[in-house]
């Protein structure tokens, strides 16, 4: 057995896939998978690195000597604010595959609303031959909120599809060929937006951010008529009761949601039954285990060579 302390893994998704990949990951030091019942009571005092996704509440008490924490996904809100969180680097998962999957989902949802796919679905079930006259992508403005790695890739691919794309972030980002807005220009950004795409991280400022008041500020005289809301960022950034009300009252024409306030989405949630609402079970960009573990191995190697870690979270900003 290696004399180097093993990597602690506490990931609350795809336990079979995690266990399979861990057979060959971290070959130089091994790992402790807390999903394995045999490890539940194991002493974690010598662990230096932890890979986490929604970890156990007492984890940092059990592993007091950590040097770095690695998130099992792009978000870190499941770690920030945990009791006993040590003052050590927290590293986000950034990977080409994860970024590409997210952009695929965003583009797909925008196209489905552009071409009124929900109406075609209804016609198909009713065996009706009902043609629709849809606008071109160039006639529709997609406003992307959150211009990090995921947001900028989505912007680029939406532009390839021909959409008019604008972007918003708390502090202004400069993207060639894209008009961007900052926090002080939120209302101007919303007034231009036909399809609102949410890719914001979850912070104190973004909790409950997408609410009825915000939806009322979206454009209502564009090529789509009423606007559409798409969210693949964080579920707690949206007020689901307001989404339901906005669709029923005609403020929004529809929505595409991959994240929810509580997951899984309850069977009696009214979102399930609304027309022109597309629901996916938080799988727009699932972390692929091989890529995730390669990412952590590479970051640990950098750290132990004395090089700076990449994708470190700014705790003051929350992402």
Automatic annotation (TrEMBL):
Residues 108-282 form the D-isomer specific 2-hydroxyacid dehydrogenase NAD-binding domain. Signal peptide: none annotated. Its EC number is 1.1.1.79, 1.1.1.81. The keyword Oxidoreductase applies. Keywords: NAD, Oxidoreductase, Pyruvate. One of its GO terms (molecular function) is NAD binding. The keyword NAD applies. It is an enzyme of class 1 (oxidoreductase). It comes from the Bacteria. This is Glyoxylate/hydroxypyruvate reductase A.
């Amino acid at each position: 057995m290696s004399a180097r302390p093993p990597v602690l893994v506490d990931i609350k998704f795809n336990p079979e896939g995690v266990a399979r990949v861990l057979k060959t990951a971290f070959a130089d030091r091994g790992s402790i998978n807390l999903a394995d019942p045999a490890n539940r009571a194991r002493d974690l005092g010598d662990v230096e690195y932890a890979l986490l996704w929604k970890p156990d509440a007492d984890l940092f008490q059990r592993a007091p000597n950590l040097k770095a924490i690695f998130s099992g996904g792009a978000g870190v809100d499941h770690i920030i604010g945990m009791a006993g969180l040590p003052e050590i680097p927290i590293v986000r998962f950034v990977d080409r595959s994860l970024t590409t999957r997210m952009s695929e989902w965003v583009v797909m949802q925008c196209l489905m609303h552009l071409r009124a796919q929900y109406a075609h679905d209804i016609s198909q079930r009713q065996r009706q031959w009902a043609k629709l006259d849809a606008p071109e992508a160039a006639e529709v403005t997609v406003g992307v909120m959150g211009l990090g790695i995921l947001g900028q890739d989505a912007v680029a691919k939406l532009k390839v599809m021909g959409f008019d794309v604008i972007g918003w972030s708390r502090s202004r980002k400069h993207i060639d060929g894209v008009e961007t807005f900052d926090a002080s220009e939120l209302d101007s950004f919303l007034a231009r937006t036909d399809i609102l795409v949410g890719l914001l991280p979850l912070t104190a400022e973004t909790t409950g951010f997408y609410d009825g008041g915000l939806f009322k500020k979206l454009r209502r005289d564009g090529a789509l008529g009423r606007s559409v809301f798409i969210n693949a960022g964080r579920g707690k950034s949206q007020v689901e009761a307001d989404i339901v009300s906005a669709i029923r009252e005609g403020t929004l024409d529809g929505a595409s949601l991959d994240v929810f306030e509580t997951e899984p989405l309850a069977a009696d949630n009214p979102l399930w039954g609304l027309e022109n609402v597309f629901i996916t079970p938080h799988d727009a960009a699932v972390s692929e285990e091989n890529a995730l573990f390669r990412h952590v191995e590479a970051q640990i190697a950098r750290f132990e060579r004395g090089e700076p870690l990449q994708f470190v979270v700014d705790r003051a900003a929350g992402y």
